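To assess whether the prediction recovers the assembly geometry, we first specified each molecular entity separately, as shown.
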Amino acid sequence: MICIFCEIAARERAARIVYEDDRVVAFHDVNPQAPVHILIIPRDHISGPLDVDVANEGIIGHLVAVAARIARQEGIADNGYRLVLNQGRDGGQSVFHTHLHLLAGRRMTWPPG
Amino acid sequence: MICIFCEIAARERAARIVYEDDRVVAFHDVNPQAPVHILIIPRDHISGPLDVDVANEGIIGHLVAVAARIARQEGIADNGYRLVLNQGRDGGQSVFHTHLHLLAGRRMTWPPG
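The predicted structure of the complete assembly is given in tokenized form:
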């Protein structure tokens, strides 16, 4: 099955990439929900947060570290941001390749959806 | 300064703990925003997601792996869940000890706040 995020990671599909390293790629969400809305994905295909365990938790932590780096790069570190991972139907997951949402540029409200 | 989450991790403050290991503690949020609303925190004090870097990203990934384990334990794995980390004012961060929100038991909406 074609995975659009694997394709973006492989540069086979266009995306507005803001950061990449050997383990992750970050790009603008095509349906932004805030003035800044960036997705950070592992290059390795992990279906969702439910598939994270001791074997691959390191890469998930790296997504959060990269979010901090991007926050500084984008000038949103001081005001803050929200990070979201969705799993399955109740989480509202739409693409089944784990992606960390980084949302900023406005005051996020509570509850988080 | 007193950190209430450090106190919970040290068992010096009461909380409805659902899981703990040598690195993390998980307990019910006192202000639930969904039928299931659990906070997962590192025992080590990390102020927020902005303070995550290569040195401590491993523990943050572990929070997500523990969320998957708790999801199975609580019977919410199949329907899914949302994970949230808030940083600073725009993120709506209220306690300055990093905590991963695990929300489930209803369909979470979009945008995430």
